[in-house]
Amino acid sequence: MSVPTVLISSLGLMGGSLAAALSRVGWRVLLHHRRPEVAIHGEELGYGKAITDLTHALGQADLVVICSPVSTIADTVRQLASLHPRPVFTDVGSVKGPICAALYDLGQAGRYIGSHPMAGSHLQGLQHARANLYHGCMTAITPVELTPEHPIALVEQLWRAVGSRLCRFTPEAHDQAVAQASHLPHVMAAATAALLGASAAPLAATGFRDTTRVAGSSPDLWADILLHNRDAMLQALQFAQQHLQQLEQALKNRDISASAAWLEQGRAGRCRFEQHAQIDVPSVAEEA
Amino acid sequence: MSVPTVLISSLGLMGGSLAAALSRVGWRVLLHHRRPEVAIHGEELGYGKAITDLTHALGQADLVVICSPVSTIADTVRQLASLHPRPVFTDVGSVKGPICAALYDLGQAGRYIGSHPMAGSHLQGLQHARANLYHGCMTAITPVELTPEHPIALVEQLWRAVGSRLCRFTPEAHDQAVAQASHLPHVMAAATAALLGASAAPLAATGFRDTTRVAGSSPDLWADILLHNRDAMLQALQFAQQHLQQLEQALKNRDISASAAWLEQGRAGRCRFEQHAQIDVPSVAEEA
Asked: Which A residues in the span 134-173 are in contact with B, Cβ-Cβ below 8 Å?
């Protein structure tokens, strides 16, 4: 297989890191951003070549990766796919159901396959891009029924090239899964952080630090994600409230064994995660 | 001031680490555990001298630190204080209100001052003890009304000796503060972990890892802590459920600005924490 040409559209943390990683392993990388000076800056950083003519660039690309916020992805793919018949499109959006539904015809035609690399940072922007962002992370691929295997293989080749592991989900199963694995954790972290009063702040230590780290992320970006995964999030929020209510009842009843059993469910969930985790799970200090 | 003699009672992670740290800075450390072989093991590790006669040891000690689970602290202090009139007692319990109320007379007499060092680990036991556990952490001291300054100064000297910072709270204000800074974060982490389904586990990444780290802690130890801080926790659980409900409503209404405003409250709370934090707040990757 010859080295593919990939066009990265939108150079924030995700797109910039992908461009950096692909350039490093020798892929031909073309850079596009709605503000051309950002693509030029990406070129200066050695992440690829800033394009000047979008349609021409699309004609050279085997693969286009849309790295803009989730609310913009479907429209961008539709628009760029209409400009040139050649490239296969994928994206890095955290939600897949609405996007894959909006692009269902392109999915069946093998021109769009959803991707979601489970990597990122609460730090945004090209200045925080790093070539190892995707190394060791899991990437979910969400082809629809009848998507041909050849373009799927191309998308998988992209993620393997930057060191990612792969799994396949239907778009709907993906969204349910990320609600539990990523979006609910985000919301719980934000709720925990919001409830820290000023007088309590001096006592917050490593447990609070880790539990609430992701609460520092961009509210606008995440509001977009949560609304795109609205159905799964509404269900997850219901489950979370019901689950907290169970502990509330156990404490009301002064029931130590029910309280311990409730906490044990959390430990079991943590074990489910650690069995799958191929990321570092450090043993760091916490307050008790 | 001459170097004080301190008796550490109960050598788990907290007591073992305190003994290790105090020995390292030259304090005279006596080791006590309900199973004498644990104290002997502590002596072998160089953490102090295992005692053979408890009453005799109490007569030599300026300070006794009770490091057993919160449900046992008040009774242990009461019992040991009755054996010898000399030492001042403190503890490392995560909850202070019930203990300080049960020992109110000893508090007024300057024989007991509550301590709560905001350090620890989800890893328990003497084998995980380390001399730097308390370095840089905040320790809350909870004297009661009329507690004389001299024994307070002795307890503060202890925590400064192991590198801790200090703040004073009333026992009740302490318990409210740790509900927000430590116990609610723990509960939210456990709830988040419990709700991770098996099929979602492969997609959990660094955000999940950090948000749920403390969910790996001992359920029995934490059930004990939560029940001792029952009133403040019931209130915190109410607030958490109401707060989650606000997001649920915003998502139901498809209200992106209300969703972003909700998330912004989390970011503001995270900022309150970071302003106070003198612990490392690393910038690590997360999924988005």
From this structure: 137-138, 140, 167, 173
- Establish if B270 touches chain A: CB-CB under 8 angstroms: yes
pLDDT digits (tens, 9 = 90+) for B131-174: 999 999 999 999 999 999 999 999 999 999 999 999 999 999 99
A residues 243-262 near B, CB within 8 Å? 243-245, 247-248, 251-252, 254, 256-257, 259-262
Residues whose CB is less than 8 angstroms from the CB of residue B194 and which lie 6 or more positions away in sequence, other chains included: A243, A262, A265, A266, A268, A269, B215
Shortest distance between the Cα of B140 and any Cα of chain A, in A, equals: 8
Instruction: Please say if the pLDDT value at position B279 is more than 90.
Output: no
Rounded average pLDDT over A199-222: 94
Looking at the complex, does the CB of residue A207 fall below 8 Å from at least one CB of chain B?
Answer: yes
Instruction: State which H helix or E strand residue A150 sits in.
Output: helix A149-161
Residue B199 is given by DSSP the state T
Q: What percentage of chain A carries pLDDT values higher than 70? A: 96
Domains assigned to chain A: 5-169 (3.40.50.720), 174-276 (1.10.3660.10)
- Which of B94, B206, B260 is the closest to A288 by Cβ? B94
Q: How confident is the model at residue A287 (pLDDT cuts 50, 70, 90)?
A: very low
Q: Give the one of A198, A234, A283 whose C-beta lies nearest to B252's C-beta.
A: A234
Residue of A nearest to B184 (CA): A192
CA distance A188 to chain B (A): 6
pLDDT of residue A11 exceeding 80, the answer is: yes
**What value does the mean pLDDT take over residues A252-264?**
98
The CA angle B273-B278-B283, to the nearest 5 degrees, is 70
Sorted by sequence, the CB contacts under 8 Å of residue A37 that are 6+ apart come out as none
A225 CB within 8 Å of a chain B CB: yes
Q: Determine contact, residues A182/A94, Cβ cutoff 8 Å.
A: yes
pLDDT per residue over A97-147, tens digit each? 999 999 999 999 999 999 999 998 778 899 999 999 999 999 999 999 999
Structure tokens at A199: 């007088």
**pLDDT, average across residues A187-214:** 96
In contact, A255 and B227? CB cutoff 8 Å: no
What's chain A's Rg over C-alpha atoms?
21
